Amino acid sequence: MSLISRFFHVFLGKDITALLLKSSTGSRASGGITESELIRLESSVSRSIFGPLPNGVVSRDFFNLDKKTWIWREACQDQDGLIRETVARYEVQPGGVLKILPGHRYYFLEGNELHNFILAVQSYYSLVSREIYEPKPQLED
Amino acid sequence: MNHSNNSQTADDTVRHMTETWLEMVGDLIAKNRQAVIVASKNGDLPKVSVSQTPTEES
Questions:
Q1: Concatenated DSSP letters of B23-56
Q2: In this complex, is the C-beta atom of B54 within 8 Å of any C-beta atom belonging to chain A?
Q3: How many CB atoms lie within 10 A of CB A53?
């Protein structure tokens, strides 16, 4: 599955919490849990990293798409009531962390932005490990 | 001593360590997911717990 296909597949998934709770009662659907469902669950758990939503921001998602790709998605409501989504992709590359924005804009993270990204990744891993998977030793930078 | 080269080397080292660490995190997350997926397909519910913390959707 291509990167773009995987990205959109994530946002067409089902409610993970309900799925897992349903699974826990034994009425598991055939095929088990999918990666997309787990990503959605991780994303929902990680929302607390960034605090309450600012005015105008409808939703936020930050999640790990694959081993070298992270996604930041933010939906904002403009003055006309329209919902506009901004998606940023972060790719871990040998030259650094490449941030890719809509409109073919991209640059390598530096300074505070890089530092904040690393903190977000660290918090993300700690949260999903604690809340979803088995407790693991905390990663130290 | 060439301070400029030393500074460049230090920057490269930090960049490499950062990249390595980020890749390690990504790899660990992928392994966690695979373990859950495999266990769920086998009918073994993994040690997955969902926090009761209310979400924005609830």
A1: HHHHHHHHHHHHHHHHHHHTT---S--------T
A2: no
A3: 15
- Three-state SS at B22: helix
CB contact under 8 A, A31 and B41: yes
Complex-level ipTM beyond the 0.90 threshold: no
pTM of the model: 0.73
Beta carbons of A15 and B43 less than 8 Å apart: no
CB contact under 8 A, A23 and B46: no
Which residues partner with A86 through β-bridges? A74
What are the pLDDT digits (tens) for B5-57?
788 788 788 888 889 999 999 999 999 999 999 988 887 765 454 443 444 44
Number of residues that make up chain A: 141
